[in-house]
Specification:
The structure holds three protein chains of three kinds.
Chain A lengths: L1 H18 L13 E2 L3 E3 L5 E8 L9 H17 L3 E8 L4 H14 L5 E5 L3 H7 L11 H5 L3 H7 E2 L2 E2 L1 E3 L5 E6 L10 H13 L14 H12 L6 E2 L5 E2 L4 H20 L11 H9 L5 E5 L11 E4 L11 E3 L2 E5 L4 H16 L1 H11 L6 H4 L7 H12 E3 L6 H16 L5 H18 L1
Parallel strand pairs in A: 3-4, 3-5, 14-16
Antiparallel strand pairs in A: 1-2, 2-4, 5-15, 6-7, 8-15, 9-12, 9-13, 10-11
Chain B lengths: L5 H29 L23 H9 L2 H32 L5 H10 L5 H15 L5 H25 L3 H9 L4 H12 L1 H17 L2 H6 L8 H4 L12 H26 L11
Chain C lengths: L8 H27 L15 H7 L3 H32 L6 H12 L2 H12 L6 H8 L11 H29 L3 H9 L4 H29 L3 H7 L10 H11 L3 H31 L1
Helix pairs in contact in C: 1-12, 2-12, 3-7, 3-9, 4-7, 5-10, 7-9, 7-10, 9-12, 11-12
The chains are: A alpha+beta, B mainly alpha, C mainly alpha.
Chain lengths: ~450, ~280, ~290
């Protein structure tokens, strides 16, 4: 019976806390605050709701990043005493779910006022018609300094709907003790495999990423290098990757994976590898070379590792892919929209913010005027700028997430033993084409 | 109590050992992960050395500081309590009617109620989002609690019907002669006699409510309202950083109250009126 | 429903009925309606069509997904029942220390699906950090590529789900065992029954009704499981561990194809009904025999 009483006591305690919520609002005008969940002056007349990747907020798991965001948010709050922002974080690994939820909310009429949108999802937001144009709130630098590839995604019909915050791309990393001359073409990767096998080394010759959204991210540069495209932007983003030359390129790229796996040059474990896992294999000395995000360099011992262009199907071609997140604006109210744009610019995307923020993350800038600043004059960034020339952004169409899911599945099927790559390509294409026709 | 021969005992204890390792090993592994540094997570360990030598307790501090675990815990507690009580209140009358009422096709009706259990929260979440949005019930406690109650209602009705069945009807009759209404009988006679069964139902409901994921994930978009099941994800960094140790620490913090609650409530099952649940 | 004396059944069922209509029947009807449209999340207009059904049924992967679902459900349910019963029986022996088993089993049940998936993924890994494989090697065994071969990956998802789900079935089973009247055992003792005879003649028949309910409930729960599989294998390699619920999840939340997700959801309900009908038939058949 005592325990029953305890239980009742517990219940009533919790019930009391249930009803004691409303008392916080009556506070007097307060000083600016900054935390993982809020920024600005509580009780300010303009109240915004924001959805931001947790790693881009004070919820960041790395101390110096967190300190940076605190400083940045407080400075912004001092300048804008009339604005208060409620921040909701997007947890790592839940991008697709968060984007789906945001679009559902936007169409139901209650979205956040602005949101961090993964660049490959921007097409879905354009097509849903939920973004507000922000041209009126941009200055000259905002309009002229951003790279062209960002505009292909953030702009539609001459109007700008978003600000691209940072990018990251892929690098090929190789252990210099093993291959001072890195593989430049696919055949070299197989040669490296033969060399390691001959010396009876246990090392994994070649690693890439084939898990989740990163599977397509690491796959597409090989495909694009063959002068192939996924969707035809001139024809309303109709899927074309299963037609003619594109189909051949898709098959050839899947064959590359298939043959690497068959030769033992690449382990089947790639399907459970994200960037962090390939880096772990590299750091443990288990891998001779790997493909991974440009931001991984900071984790490696630079003495041992060379980095540069991805090996391609033939000599003389280069290709890469732009990742990274944008900010999209969903507020309809003009005052809120302006306050949102100013927040994003001052905290994330103007020249000063971007110059200071990106090196902390190992991200790559997307504005020309940032490139010239001090922190970016390093051998690493010089290599990166070379890669920026040859990259592409993922197409801004609502069917890209379908491709992303299907490429991961196709690679997984090859790992599971499927050898008929043409069949895989045709099945993927039939699937995405049907989705296109059904829209 | 039985006496067991030594070989039987050995056999029983070896079953015990195998099952114990199976259930506990992953839990211990999660605890080990929660005490590692980011660099140690992908270390080549085996079964006898996976627990880190240097325990990084600071992961817990970091999690408590970086994400609002206390808020999430309180939210979960509120939801669990509201759900457990609400679902009982909603289940009692129909369980009573199913137990004491005499009508045709009672079994069919029981199966009909269980049918609702088959509907997955994945698919009802979006239609509910739309109608909640129209009713301005998104981002509200009672909104989420009502769905939780609905999710647990079929099973609870089923369970309580069985519990009531096990209580002799003579008790009802005696009370009725004393002038009790049917409602009075239910409240004064059946419910007090059903306490152990109620405790069992509460264990099931609170554990399931504690671990609901897709409904709160999809219908809530306010950090201050998240329950633990959704909130712990905030401990997960981006693709940039390995943060499994933080996620594990958040998971362990989220696990503790549920395990304690279970240890506390499970004593009631010993009285096991739950067996009555199956005689209908 | 008919009136029985002053017992107006309708009113007693009112709370249940209202809640089920609002939170199950209406959304379910809406989901079924969606399955007959071409709705995508983010698209403003949609039309009624059966193309979503045609696409799902003409997908060559569907058969594999159905087969995965069948294997996953049958094995998961069998082992959850088996281990649940075993734990219940061990607890009933009243031997010292057995109580820990109950807490251990329930703890596994409380672990959130996402964390369960991530943890088992690290443990099953055939990479350098895979605890299970490293332990195999320690004893001179070979590494098993759990996550990269279709059959072993499905086995891994089953093990993970059995681990998580046994708590529920174990508690139900244990409750039922505790409910058996000790006098029945005593009577059997007097008749000179040995423990095996006691188990098959007293325990099992009395447990049967609870086993049936348990069977139905955990089957439904297993058909609806997706979160642990998602964080364990993402349904891979390829689609080797993709079950219906995961297809529903992927179609809806990753590909935003609400209509197709709804078709898979309808298939989930149909498969739950099929399983339950089979059980009911089996039970009826036995009763008549």
């Amino acid at each position: 019976m005592k325990k029953m009483l305890l239980l009742i006591a517990m219940i009533s305690l919790i019930a009391m806390s249930l009803f004691s919520q409303g008392s916080e609002d009556s506070a007097a005008p307060a000083a600016p605050v900054a935390s993982a969940t809020e920024a600005g002056t509580p009780g300010a007349p303009i109240k915004l709701r924001a959805l931001i990747g947790s790693w881009n907020t004070m919820a960041a798991t790395v101390e110096d990043r967190k300190d940076f965001y605190e400083k940045q948010l407080l400075a912004w709050a001092e300048r804008h005493p009339d604005v208060y922002v409620e921040i909701e974080g997007i947890p790592g690994g839940t991008t697709a779910q968060a984007m789906t939820k945001l679009i559902t909310a936007a169409l139901a009429g209650n979205p956040h006022d602005f949101a961090n949108i993964d660049s490959q999802w921007v097409g879905n937001f354009h097509e849903a018609g939920v973004l507000s144009p922000i041209d009126a709130y941009l200055d000259d630098a905002d309009k002229t300094q951003f790279f062209d590839f960002t505009k292909m995604v953030t702009m539609r019909e001459g109007r700008q709907y978003g600000l691209w915050a940072e990018t990251g791309l892929l690098l090929y990393y190789w252990n210099e003790n093993i291959s001072p001359e890195p593989p430049a073409v696919w055949e070299d990767v197989f040669a490296l495999n033969d060399k390691l096998k001959k010396s009876e080394s246990d090392m994994i010759p070649f690693l890439t990423i084939a898990k989740g959204a990163s599977a397509a991210f690491a796959f597409l540069p090989f495909y694009w290098a063959q002068d192939a495209i996924l969707f035809d932007p001139a024809d309303n983003f109709r899927p074309v990757f299963g037609e003619g030359r594109n189909r051949e390129a898709m098959i050839k790229t899947l064959n590359f994976y298939r043959d690497l796996l068959a030769a033992g040059a690449m382990p089947p474990e790639i399907i459970s590898y994200e960037h962090n896992e390939v880096a772990a294999e590299a750091k443990a000395g288990n891998a001779a070379s790997f493909i991974g995000g440009s931001w991984l360099l900071g984790q490696l011992n630079v003495e041992d590792w060379g980095y540069g262009s991805l090996p391609m199907y033939k000599e003389g071609v280069e290709s890469n892919i732009y990742g990274g997140w944008t900010f999209g604006f969903l507020a309809k109210d003009e005052r809120k929209l302006e306050a949102s744009v100013n927040f994003v610019k001052e905290v994330y995307t103007d020249k000063e913010a971007m110059s200071e923020r990106l090196p902390l993350h190992g991200y790559i800038p997307v504005r020309k005027d940032v490139l010239s600043s001090e922190g970016f004059n390093t051998p690493f960034y010089n290599e990166i700028f070379k890669q920026l020339e040859v990259g592409r952004a993922r197409p801004a169409t609502s069917l890209y997430p379908d491709v992303e899911v299907l490429v991961e599945v196709a690679i997984g099927k090859i790992v599971a033993g499927e050898t008929d790559t043409a069949k895989l390509v045709d099945q993927m294409f039939a699937d995405v084409s049907a989705a296109y026709n059904d829209r | 109590m039985h006496k067991y021969t030594l070989p039987t005992k050995i056999l029983l204890y070896s079953f015990f050992a195998v099952l114990l390792v199976f259930f506990l090993l992953p839990v211990v592994y999660i605890i080990a992960l929660s005490l590692k540094s980011a660099e140690q997570i992908l270390d080549p360990v085996h079964l006898f050395n996976f627990f880190p030598k240097q325990l990084q307790f600071s992961n817990y501090g970091a999690v408590m500081k970086n994400i609002e675990m206390d808020v999430y815990l309180l939210n979960s507690a509120k939801l669990v309590v509201t759900t457990s009580i609400g679902v009982l209140l909603a289940a009692f009358p129909s369980a009573y009617a199913l137990s004491r009422g005499k009508f045709k096709r009672k079994n069919l009706m029981l199966i009909g109620i269980l049918f609702f259990q088959m509907v997955s929260p994945i698919i009802i979440s979006i239609p509910i989002y739309w109608f909640y949005s129209k009713l301005h019930m998104l981002n509200t406690y009672y909104g989420i609690a009502l769905i939780y109650i609905a999710i647990h209602l079929p099973f609870t009705t089923f369970l309580m019907k069985g519990v009531f069945d096990a209580i002799p009807e003579d008790l009802d009759e005696a009370a009725k002669i004393d002038g009790c209404s049917r409602f009075g009988v239910m409240v004064r006679i059946l419910i007090p006699s059903a306490l152990p069964g109620i405790a069992s139902a509460t264990i099931f409901n609170s554990i399931n409510a504690w671990s609901q994921f897709i409904i709160p994930f999809f219908l809530l978009s306010d950090n201050k309202l998240y329950p633990v099941s959704v909130g712990i994800l905030q401990a997960q960094g981006s693709y940039q950083d390995l943060s499994t140790h933080y996620l594990a620490a958040a998971g362990v913090i989220g696990l503790l109250p549920a395990v304690l609650l279970v240890i506390f409530l499970q004593k009631f099952i010993l009285r096991a009126l739950i067996a009555g649940a199956v005689k209908g | 429903m008919k009136k029985e004396g002053n017992f107006k059944l309708v009113y007693w069922f009112l709370p249940l009925a209202v809640i089920l209509v609002f939170f199950y029947l209406y959304p379910l009807a809406d989901a079924i309606r969606l399955s007959f449209t071409n709705t995508r999340i983010g698209k403003l207009d949609s039309v009624y069509t059966v193309r979503s059904y045609i696409r799902v049924f003409s997908d060559p992967d569907l058969l594999i997904v159905l087969r995965n679902t069948l294997v996953f459900v049958v094995f998961t349910v069998f082992f959850q029942l088996f281990f649940g019963l075993l734990v219940g029986l061990l607890l009933e022996t009243q031997l010292r220390g057995m109580g820990i088993l109950k807490v251990a089993m329930i703890t596994a049940w409380v672990v959130p699906g996402v964390i369960a998936g991530i943890t088992w993924n690290i443990m099953f890994s055939s990479s350098a950090w895979g605890v299970i494989n490293n332990t195999f090697e320690l004893f001179g065994g070979n590494r098993v590529p759990f996550m990269t071969r279709p059959a072993t990956a499905l086995l891994a998802t089953i093990i993970t789900n059995v681990w998580r789900g046994t708590g529920f079935s174990g508690i139900l089973q244990y409750g039922a065992l505790r409910g058996i009247d000790p006098q029945l055992y005593e009577a059997a003792d007097i008749d000179g029954a040995n423990s095996r005879q006691k188990f098959f003649r007293v325990t099992l028949p009395l447990l049967k009704p609870m086993l049936m309910i348990n069977l139905v409930l955990i089957t439904i729960a297993t058909v609806n499981t997706y979160d642990a599989i998602w964080s364990l294998t993402q349904g891979g390699p390829g689609i080797a561990t993709t079950v219906l619920s995961l297809q529903t999840y992927k179609s809806t939340f990753l590909r935003m194809n609400l209509a197709q997700g709804a078709v898979y959801a309808v298939l989930m309900i149909v498969s739950s009904i099929v399983f339950t009908t089979i059980y009911l038939r089996l039970m009826k058949g036995q009763d008549h025999a």
